[in-house]
């Protein structure tokens, strides 16, 4: 009978003239509506204060069914509210978990970045040290080259002088 997905509010009103309770916002089956439309008194007029026993039973049954429908609607709303609370808790847990995961990822990234920075600094120092070593070697080899060139010039000079002397001696002998 009750609507499973209805979110309407149920309100009661009492009609003062006819002592009829009007329920708004409740779904009723066709059979209940037909029974409500049927005149319960033989004259077809609205019932007065002197109701028959079957009319009282129908009214009691109708009230009982309406109360059942209201209880079902309340239970459905309570169930939906509980589902919303549970869903809210799950969303909150997911949000917290996501934030923790994101925080861990950020910390890991920062650690990796710091490690790479330190590694770059070590490589820069190693590069500077090798550059200094290469400059030392370059200076040493240039110095050695200058000495060798100087010795070579001295040997050339001595050899040239000896050659000149020997040539002069041979010339003097054969003249």
From TrEMBL:
Record membrane topology: Lipid-anchor
Family annotation (InterPro entries): MIC19/MIC25, MICOS_subunit_Mic19
Gene Ontology biological-process entries: inner mitochondrial membrane organization
Segments forming a coiled coil: none
Polar residues: compositionally biased ranges: 40-52
Keywords associated with the record: Disulfide bond, Lipoprotein, Membrane, Mitochondrion, Mitochondrion inner membrane, Myristate
Chain intervals for the UniProt region annotation (Disordered): 28-60
Protein name: MIC19 protein
Organism of origin: Rhynochetos jubatus (kagu)
């Amino acid at each position: 009978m009750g609507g499973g997905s209805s979110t309407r509010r149920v309100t009661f009103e009492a009609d003062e003239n006819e002592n009829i309770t009007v329920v708004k916002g409740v779904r009723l089956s066709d059979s209940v509506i037909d029974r409500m439309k049927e005149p319960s008194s033989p004259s077809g007029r609205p019932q007065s204060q002197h109701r028959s026993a079957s009319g009282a039973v129908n009214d009691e049954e109708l009230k009982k069914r309406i109360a059942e429908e209201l209880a079902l609607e309340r239970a459905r709303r309570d169930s939906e509210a509980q589902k919303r609370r549970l869903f809210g808790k799950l969303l909150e847990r997911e949000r917290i978990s996501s934030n923790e995961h994101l925080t861990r990822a950020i910390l890991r990234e920062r650690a990796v970045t710091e490690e790479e920075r330190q590694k770059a600094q070590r490589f820069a120092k190693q590069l500077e040290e090798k550059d200094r070593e290469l400059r030392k070697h370059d200076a040493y080899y240039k110095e050695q080259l200058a000495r060798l060139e100087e010795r070579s010039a001295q040997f050339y000079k001595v050899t040239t002088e000896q050659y000149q002397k020997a040539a002069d001696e041979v010339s003097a002998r054969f003249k």
